[in-house]
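4.2 Preliminary Data

To establish feasibility before requesting continued support, the project team ran the inverse folding procedure on a target of 345 residues. The structure was first converted into the token representation described in Section 3, and no sequence information of any kind was made available to the design step. The complete token record follows.
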């Protein structure tokens, strides 16, 4: 554990609001200028309860996200929680973080543009304060309308032109029982054509048709990949598509187990991926909701796959390759990671 903590790490699959930990929720300041007192800050207590480490199911996870969204009531709170999330990753020795979030016009956040502005501002502020590189992926929550998906793609393209070093990609996520992947394809294609990288959540419920469509779309990365292997709810055909595509998979061990998408860590497809040489990277998904850290996820992976220290190094170096960072970012990160491993004694 201590070793995994001190290792420099890269986080490639982290939903902003899912990464708001209990510790952050309990400290959400009241920015209300109308002079409400701190006792009105009901959100911290209400939401802290839902995050106790327990087994959820997918439906419960999505209810939890909705509760957390209740906290993000003002642009100031959004800015503040973003800085706190980044700081928590930095304290876990994460040197490169790809945050993803669906921009929302909710509560007192007047527009998706203001949402983007607050998150980007927080990223810029943190990068000045801590030695961490942070990128932003604009998500489409699949329960959104096609029109809203289009809006998010337009937003992502616009903000990537303004901040090319920060806004680098798009993600499709959200409740897999809602929405249809194909309806978002035109928006995703537009984003890809304008230079953005794409990652798609392969459906966490068995849906071979959609999983195949997503893999055939050849995104730069995919999330989860549960229900793909024929022994684990998928089909031979799907597994072979994944195998030959060489698309890196973002593996989120605690998330998959706690949300009951896989029955136990020993039954997790990470073993099959390792045996078949499918590229993967270790991620947290929602460090807040699943009460985890990247250190913990690396530790779980090391225990499950019986990884040596050298293999942990290789895993980290590969995550640099799979990241959506620029060639300069990758050179810098490679030098940092190699430097740490050379000097660790
Ligand atoms: P946000 O986009 O509000 O910053 O982060 C929370 C959102 O991320 C959730 O409402 C959901 O759309 C998405 N999300 C977080 N974790 C998962 C997950 O494990 N699976 C899926 N499919 N979506 C998720």
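Position-by-position output of the design step:
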């Amino acid at each position: 554990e201590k070793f995994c903590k001190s290792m420099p790490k890269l986080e490639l699959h982290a939903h902003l609001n899912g990464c708001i930990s209990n510790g952050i929720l309990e400290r959400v300041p009241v920015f209300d200028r109308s002079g409400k007192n701190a006792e009105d800050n009901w959100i911290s207590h209400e939401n802290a309860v839902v995050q106790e480490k327990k087994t959820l199911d997918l439906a419960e996870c999505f209810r939890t996200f909705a509760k957390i969204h209740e906290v993000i009531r003002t642009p100031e709170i959004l800015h503040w929680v973003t800085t706190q999330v980044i700081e928590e990753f930095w304290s876990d020795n994460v040197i490169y973080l790809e945050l993803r979030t669906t921009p929302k016009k909710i509560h007192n956040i007047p527009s998706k543009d203001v949402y983007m502005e607050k998150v980007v501002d927080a990223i810029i502020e943190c990068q000045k304060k801590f030695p961490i590189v942070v990128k932003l992926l604009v998500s489409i929550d699949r329960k959104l309308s096609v029109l809203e998906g289009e809006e998010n793609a337009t937003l992502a393209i616009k903000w990537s032109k303004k901040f090319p070093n920060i806004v680098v990609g798009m993600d499709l996520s959200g409740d897999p029982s809602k929405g249809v992947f194909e309806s978002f394809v035109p928006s995703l294609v537009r984003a890809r054509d304008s230079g953005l990288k794409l990652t798609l959540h392969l459906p966490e419920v068995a849906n071979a048709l959609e999983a195949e469509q997503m893999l055939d779309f050849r995104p730069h990365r995919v999330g989860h990949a549960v229900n793909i292997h024929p022994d684990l709810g998928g089909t031979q055909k799907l597994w072979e598509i994944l195998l030959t595509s060489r698309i890196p998979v973002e593996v989120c061990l605690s998330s998959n187990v706690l949300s009951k998408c896989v029955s136990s860590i020993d039954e997790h497809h990470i073993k099959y991926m390792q045996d078949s040489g499918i590229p993967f990277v270790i991620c947290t998904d929602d460090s807040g909701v699943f009460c985890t850290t990247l250190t913990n996820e690396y530790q779980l992976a090391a225990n499950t796959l019986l990884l040596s220290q050298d293999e942990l190094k290789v895993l980290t170096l590969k995550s640099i390759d799979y990241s959506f960072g620029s060639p300069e970012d990758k050179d810098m990160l490679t030098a940092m990671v190699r430097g740490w491993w050379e000097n660790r004694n």
